[in-house]
Amino acid sequence: MILMTSKEGIIMGKLPKYCVKRSSKKEGEYYAHQPSPDMIRLLKIKYKPFKVLHELCVYAEEQRILLEDALRKETSRLHVDPNTVRGLVHHYYETPYFQNLKDGREKSSKRDYKELLEVGLNFTPRHSNKRLGDTAIKSVTREYVDKFHVDLKQSGYSVHRVFHINKVFSRVFNVGIMHSRVLSNPFSMRELQVPRANKGKGRGTWSEEQLKLFIKTADELDYSSVGTIALFCNTLAQRHVDIRNLLNCNLVDNILTFTQSKSETATRGGGVPVTLDFDLSTLPMLLERLNFVRERELRIKERLDSGETIRRGAGQGNHRRRNCINDHPEGYLINYEGTGTGLTGYNVRAAVQRIRRIAGIPFELQMLDQRASGATRLGLNGLTSDEIMSVTGHRNPKTVRIYLRKESQMRSNALNKVFG
Fold this sequence. Notes:
Elements: E1 2-6, E2 9-13, E3 19-24, E4 28-33, H1 37-42, E5 48-50, H2 53-78, H3 85-93, H4 96-99, H5 110-121, H6 142-154, H7 159-178, H8 208-220, H9 224-236, H10 240-244, E6 251-252, E7 255-259, H11 261-264, E8 275-279, H12 284-305, H13 345-359, H14 369-380, H15 385-392, H16 397-403, H17 407-419
Antiparallel strand pairs: 1-2, 3-4, 4-5, 6-7, 7-8
């Protein structure tokens, strides 16, 4: 008997489809995979000989699965109207501009682009009864895109998310222009008034009243850990990723010492990590906040030990599918109410969106703006650039200037010092 492959694996029977047995004076008997015209056209494979039958069977099964997937995709493309935005995106997928993108989960990868494009294609603006993907290309004007972005923000998407969706669609339309499929690009950054979320001066600044309102609302919603992170980020002018990853061993005798995570990547280029230390005895509000959070953590732990089910809110319940940080042997300084362990970036983002919406805080304000808001407050209180750099951990004064906002108010303060 000769082995063959099937969906369940290799079973007894005859040769698999498109597989043949050959013989030659030189090689003797051998096996080969003779691809069909569809395989040659879609999979770009050629005639391939094998000496071992098992290897041929495994290879034939792999090519069969790939062919089914390619035929399914080809059939779905045939049902897409080329005059719609979805048709333009499908055309973009087949161009080298998309095919040459790197694979993986990082930014600017094929997966990242597809996720952003699917969000936009499946979104239905409030001023239209059709999803963007089903809308005719000629109907997507600059006015349409302006309203589209407003509706995306009002639906809960952050400014940064909307910016990246716009950037990817802009590239799709630019490729369409090069291939003469569209006449203009309504997603062009030059035409569209979209906040440049990746530029420091384009982001917002948290006021003291907004910060207090955020923390108060977080406590009412049982997100005291997120409110604590916001207070630490604003007071110490640090990134929230550094604050949420603090361990109990980082705080000894009221001295908080840690190494900035972003500076660690600089060591690959020969840089030196930035290690900061803060005396929290000079910042009693932070110590009081830590004690308050720890008391709440103990109460929540008692409720969990008694068998009570804690409410599942934003970022809770599905944390294991979101790369939840496992409990560290040293223990985290700030633990998340929904998991009892350290917070993930997803926990913070989901909770911030909910707190901000209930508190009525503008959606332009993000957790990452707390660092710039803290640096700005230091500048308004008269600290020099060197003093601010000692707090934020920056090495270049030009970088600090990006974080300092409200420059007109700083100029007024400077003049008052001299002439006031």
